Amino acid sequence: MTWISPGFGDTIARMPPPAFQPIAPEAAGMPLYRAVKRALLQSIEAGTLAPGAALPNETALARAFEVAVGTLRQAVGELVAEHILVRRQGRGTFVATHSAERFLFQFFHVERSDGLREAPAVEMLGYERGRLDDEAAEALGSRPGDPAFLVENRLLLQGRPVVHDRIAIPASLFKGMTEKRLRERPGTIYRLYQDEFAITVVRALERSRAVAADRATARVLGVQVGTPMLQVRRTALTFGDKPVEYRVSTVRTAQHEYVQTLSRPV
After folding, report:
1. Which of 7, 36, 76, 247 is most exposed by smallest CB count within 10 Å?
2. What is the pTM of this model?
3. Is residue 22 within 8 Å of 61, Cβ to Cβ?
4. pLDDT 10s digits, 240-260
């Protein structure tokens, strides 16, 4: 399966704008723009502002909150920087959806050593309803042995197997998940979470280390047991930093690198 999904503008949800309440400066208990940001986040998390939905124009939104347009812009700017909102030139500001472009920019950092970056082709190797081991349970804030869906994938770049992914998601959060849904999804797995389970991954915590390929990874990636690899352990987080997925990605680095762009807020 290759991850291909529509751009932001192709799936815009059309719905009546939500009714926002005025924010009283003396009752906010925080800088006013942060109170506006929190109110917008609450609407997005509750689904009142659905993925792909357009925000009301700045003037109308500032009037609804009874704040200055500059205050509103500061709140919206932070949400754009956090990839929760996206600005479309000449069209407005929208709640971000999980497109292939967003996945490649925000959540996939493996590229060829010459700088070529592309979305991987995904081969699903295994799917089962199992239980969380100690490591996954700790990352997900669950108990060892809790029911989970366990997925094994091979990711190909330029036609070569490069990444061995092992994914664990809590069964309690993904009721109704099936192998068919995973195999036949039209977009990324995070788009599936968003569209069918109302779970939006907004960021991820990653830890990386050098490892030697074990037998399973050697078989999946076509290398010798003991080959040096990079392993990335990711906990995907939704609103409120709630963990929703634990993933162990073992990367073949003979011709590929893990590249991350770091920046400071302006």
Report:
1. 7
2. 0.83
3. no
4. 999 999 999 999 999 999 998
